[in-house]
Amino acid sequence: MRNPFNFMALQMLMAALLLSGCADAGDTAGDADTDSDTDSDADTDSDADTDSDADSDTDGDSDTDTDSDTDTDSDTDTDSDTDSDPIGQPTPDGRVLIADNGDGEAWITIDFFSAPMRMDAFAAYVPGVLDSGMRGGDCILYRAAGGACDPPCDWDQYCDANDTCVDAPVRESAGTVTIDADDPVIIAEPGTDEWSHGQYWPDNLPAGHTGAGSDITVSAAGDEFPAFSATVEGLDPVAFLLDDEWGTLTLLDGQDNEVTWDTAGAEGQVQMIINSGWHGAPPVAVLYCEAPATAGRILIPQAIVEALPIIGGMGLFQHGSLIAATRSVNLLVDNRIVEVAISRRAALNPLHNVPEK
Fold it and tell me: pTM for the whole thing?
């Protein structure tokens, strides 16, 4: 086994020290950063948040239907999520994300792990640190599982909802990864030393390659993580109707809440991810919502809104929140789920029950 010392260990130590000094520090989110996983390692801190909320989804619902196929070939299911599968935040083993914020170049993130991970926070984290269960409308609410292992877990483990120390997933190499947008073709090689193993630093994709009518083929040569190839179609951006130009979304108790958008030319799935917590640990709460882009709205039921923690205000390097129109292809390769996605994203600045000054 590789020497697992990495920045994840430092994050976990920091989180453990914080938790020992202040149980349930009431972390809140509010920044509109949609930067994808600039932290180089999976965050596996067990975040022994004493929040009594519970819910538990370790399911691998992988956004655009990661079917439960048991075949070992490259299942290239590209359905449009029109089936009745319960909504769940994507939890693939690997992902290549081409994210376009509409400000020029699209950035590319490449992540492969030894087990399913959630990848839409400051760093990837293990699903087992959050519970799920409150579902309604187009949404599901995940909250800290509250694991409290005694003795504390080692730095390369995490504490699950059953108060059991579990080995944390590690990054893996899939060999050379090629992103073929016709012109250009981007080649990304994995890091190979003990500090950067399995990490990729691809160039950005020039503007004009993610819109409707564009095709991008992503392939990996294979290594610890299996080889794969998939082609994903581009899509045009969606005009989300938010409170202001800063992406403010104010969630109000006492009523259902809606997020709406212009459906003209809308394609793919709209996904909304609201993270609460700071980057030194996994989010303490995640609101994940999804609807077909043609629906024109996401419905957040009153009960889910009122179960959210305080969100917004000042915070230290908060996990970012976002809303996006996304088209993805999910592959099942050697029992590993790989997601290849093009995402037209907008930053969110969510607010919920922020105390008045």
Answer: 0.77
SS3 content of the chain, % helix, strand, coil (to 5): 10, 35, 55
Which letter does DSSP use for residue 320 in this model? P
Q: For residues 336 and 316, what is the distance between their CA atoms, to the nearest angstrom?
A: 35
Q: How far from 312 is each of 191, 250, 298, 306, CA to CA, in Å?
A: 36, 9, 20, 15
Beta pairing class for 165-167 and 285-292: unpaired
Residue-wise pLDDT tens digits, 96-116? 999 999 888 999 999 999 999
12 band by pLDDT with thresholds 50, 70 and 90 = very low
Spatial contact of 308 and 298, defined as CB atoms under 8 Å apart: no
pLDDT tens digits, one per residue of 38-49: 344 444 443 333
- At 311 the three-state DSSP class reads strand
Residue with tokens 């250009």, as numbered in its chain: 184
What is the secondary structure of 12-39 as a DSSP string? Answer: HHHHHHHHHHSSS--------------S
